[in-house]
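Example A, followed by Example B.
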Amino acid sequence: MKISLSRGLAACAFLLLLMIIVIPVSGVVPLSPSSTIAASPMKPMVSAIVSSATPAIGDPVTVSGTATGGNLTAGVQIWVFAGNYVNVSIVPVKMDGTYTKTYATTGLPAATYYVFVQTPGNDGAFNLDLAMTGRYSGQVVNAQSGALLLNFTGTGSVQDAAASTALTNVLNQAGIDDVYTKTTFRLGEPATATTAEQMTTNIPPPATTAKSPLSPVTILTSVGIAVLASCTLLRRS
C-alpha cells in the first residue's frame, strides 16, 4: 500500500513537471518588458457654444463648452474678435471637462464677433500667442519661434471674416498640435423702448357733411307749394 502511494506521488510530480516544460513551448510565453503596449492618450477634443447668438450691446455673453483629451493643465484659450477689437483669455478647465467665460459687452461696437476656443493638445502648451499692443490691436505669433503669423491691425492686417480664415489656416499649419473649434455671435444695438404715446392709435372722428343754409327763395317756394296744396284740398271739400 505504501509502495502504490509513492508511485502515485511520483506520477503526479512527473505530470506537473511535464506541464511546466510543455506549456511555454505551446506559445504561452510571458511578455518581456520591451513588448509591453503603452496606453495611448485620448484624442483632444473641444466644443463651444455662446449664450445668445444675437445679444444686444450691454448684455453679457457667455462662452462655454467641454474640453477632453490631451494635456489640459493650462486650460483653454478663447479668442473673441471683431474689427479692431480682439480679446484673448486663458480659462481653466474643471474636473468634469467643462469651462465657461462671461464677457461684458457694454461699450463694444455692434458687429459680428468671431469666437475661437483652443486647447494645447498633447504637449500642454499653446502654440499661438497674442502680443498685445493695445486693447484693440495685436499680433499673433508662434509661441515657440516668435515668428509673426498674422496681424489684427496695422500693415497687412486682417479683420472679421478674413481674420477668422487666417487664424484657421494658422491653427491648421504643420507642427501646431493645438485643437480648436469656432463659433460667432452678432452684437446689435439695444431695442428702443416704445412709449405709450407711440402705442396709442389716434382714431379720427367720423367725417360729417356740412349742411348748407336754406336760401330765402327756397323757403318761399316751399311755402307757396304748401299754400297751393291747402287750397286744392279746400276746393275738393
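Example B, a separate protein, is given below in the same form.
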Amino acid sequence: MIPEAKKTAVEHALLVTFGVSEFEDISQLNTGLSSALIFRIVVRKKPYLLRIITRTDAMGDPARYYGCMKAAAEAGLAPHTWYAGIEDRISITDFVEAKPFPPGKAKVLMPDVLKRLHSLPRFPFRINYLDFADGVIRKFYAAKILPESMIEEVFQQYERIKKLYPRNDEDLVSCHNDLKPDNILFDGERVWLVDWEAAFLNDRYTELAVVANFVVTSGNDEKDYLESYFGGELTEYHQARFFLMRQMMHMIYFSFFMSLGTADGKPIDLNITKPGFREFHNRLWEGKIHLSDKDAQQQYAWVHLEQVRYNLQLKRFDEALHIVSDYQLS
C-alpha cells in the first residue's frame, strides 16, 4: 500500500517517532481531489494519520505546509504533529475519529474556529488568491465552454465587484484555504482542521464565505455568524464585504468546477439534474456527494451559477457595492 519508493522513509519516520519500524495496521483513506497519499495507521494500538506529499510544485512545499500545520496544532486547531519530514515529505499526526457534525452545531462553533485560525501568527505569503481566482475565471470565460448568452451578465457583474473590492495587504490573515467538509472534523466535542497543504495568507472573507455555504441558511443565521466572528465590532461594511466575497467565490467555484467537470473531453450536460444550493451543500456536508466525480463537479458548478445569478438581482447587491465604495473613499 505504501509506494515502494517511500517505504524506507516511512520506516525511518516510524523509528524516530515511536521506536518501531512497522505499523500494526494500515488502511488508505479517500483523498478526494488531493494528490497526497493518506493512510490511517495503528502503532502500539493507537491510530495515527500518515500523509505522503506527492506533488513537487509550490503548492506542495513541505516547509511552508508543515510550518502552518504545526502553528495550528499548537493553537489546538489541528491534530498534534508527531513527525513532519521536509526532505521525505511525510507527516504523522494524531488521527481524529470523526463523528457527525450537525449543521446547527457547526453554525455555533465554526465562527470561533475561523476567528482563532485568522488570529494565528501570519502564515507565509504565496500567491494573491484574488488574482489567482481572477485568472481561473478569465480562462474559463475565454474558453467559451458555455454560450456567452448564458453567462455574460454574471461576468459583467463580477467585473463590477472586482473593481471595487478592497485589496489591502493589512487585511490578509492566516488561512487554511481548503475548508471543505472533508477537512473539518468533529470529534463530538471540538473541531479539528486537517490537510494544511493550501495554507497561506489570504483575505479572511474567503473562508468566511466558504464556510457560510454550509452553515448560513438565512438572514438571521448570517447575522449570528458574523456577530460571533467579529464580536461587537460587526458593521454594515463587514456585512457588505462578506456579501460581495460570497459572489466572487460563487464565480470562482462555478468557473473552476465547470472547467474540471468538462476536462478530458466530457461534454456539458445542459439537462443534468441541478439540485438547489442548500440541498447540494447539505449532502456535501453529510458526505453523500464526492467532488471527484465528473457529474458532481458539473452539478456543483451549476449550483453556484444559479445562486450567484439570484444574488446579483437582489437590492442588497447594489447596496453592498455602494457601502464598500463609500468606505474606501472616506
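On Example B: The longest strand covers residues 37-43.
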